[in-house]
Automatic annotation (TrEMBL):
Record family assignment: Belongs to the succinate dehydrogenase/fumarate reductase iron-sulfur protein family.
Catalyzed reactions per annotation: a menaquinone + succinate = a menaquinol + fumarate
Keyword list, A-Z: 2Fe-2S, 3Fe-4S, 4Fe-4S, Iron, Iron-sulfur, Metal-binding, Oxidoreductase, Tricarboxylic acid cycle
UniProt cross-references to SUPFAM superfamilies, sorted A to Z: 2Fe-2S ferredoxin-like, alpha-helical ferredoxin
Metabolic or biological pathway: Carbohydrate metabolism; tricarboxylic acid cycle
Protein name according to UniProt: Fumarate reductase iron-sulfur subunit
Length: 251
């Protein structure tokens, strides 16, 4: 005869409750729409889901035309920066449960770059500024072994090595919104990465580039960039260090 314990219904261990959330997405199809418009979608989500999962559910189950970029889905490639409830974030690093799910979640493309379709912008102006600061090691010699660097020297630019070029900082900057010519925080962060590298010989070249009227002096220290950075880089501090290096003439 079976025991009472054996007859009890199987318990679902660690069951995760589903809930419905409304996403209001700013849509734009250049082939059909004169202006962007907002469209809402109800999706069933779990507390472990991220905004990127919600966008996938919409695309796969409701509207295959919804367009957005993503690649790694783990905060590394930098391709899914977007404005979520008015703040720049990576969709793959934003848990739905960390937002107020009693209200709709607003999702739109990052600002200040030309809108191409739905959540996709043209990143070329962003990368043009990035390339302009020569973000690579410049050294005249060809050593037989690796270039030696002290721990202290390495630490000077450690923070700015973490950049994944997501553009969350640059596209949250009010100066960049109003003046597309400004290099923007990300380009300055990536210049900082090499300006303060003791193995590099082109710091002065980069400082001259950033001493331009569209360079570091356009920064108004609003800290939007530091708040937006998904890698926790102290962007405003890096910009201040570049300004200081220009003023003193040495990194
Ligand atoms: S500094 Fe941060 S926010 Fe800006 S592009 Fe790099 S990772 Fe993205
Ligand atoms: S998809 Fe790669 S950072 Fe989010």
């Amino acid at each position: 005869m079976a025991t009472a314990e054996a007859e009890a219904p199987a318990q679902e261990v660690g069951a995760v409750q589903a809930f419905t959330v409304t996403l209001i997405v700013r849509r734009f199809d250049p082939e059909k729409d004169a202006e962007p418009y907002w469209e809402d979608f109800d999706v069933e989500m779990y507390s472990t889901d991220r905004v990127l999962d919600a966008l996938h559910k919409i695309k796969w189950d409701q509207d295959g035309t919804l367009s957005f970029r993503r690649s790694c889905a783990h905060g590394i490639c930098g391709s899914d920066a977007m404005r979520i409830n008015g703040r720049n974030r990576l969709a793959c690093k934003t848990l739905i449960k960390d937002l107020d799910v009693t209200k709709p979640i607003y999702v739109e493309a990052i600002k200040g770059l030309p809108l191409e379709k739905d959540l996709i912008v043209d990143m070329e102006p962003f990368f043009e500024s990035y390339r302009a600061v020569q973000p690579f090691l410049i050294a005249s010699d060809k050593p037989e072994k690796e270039r030696i660097q002290t721990i202290e020297d390495r630490a000077r630019f450690d923070d700015t090595t973490k950049c994944i070029l997501c553009a969350a900082c640059t596209s949250s900057c009010p100066v960049f919104w109003t003046d597309g010519q400004y290099f923007g925080p990300a380009a300055i962060v990536n210049a900082h990465r090499f300006i303060f590298d003791s193995r590099d010989e082109a710091a002065q070249v980069r400082l001259d580039i950033l001493n331009d009227k569209e360079g570091v002096w356009r920064c108004r220290t609003t800290f939007n960039c530091s708040e937006a950075c998904p890698r926790g880089i102290e962007v405003t501090k890096a910009i201040a260090e570049v300004k200081q290096a220009i003023l003193t003439g040495r990194p």
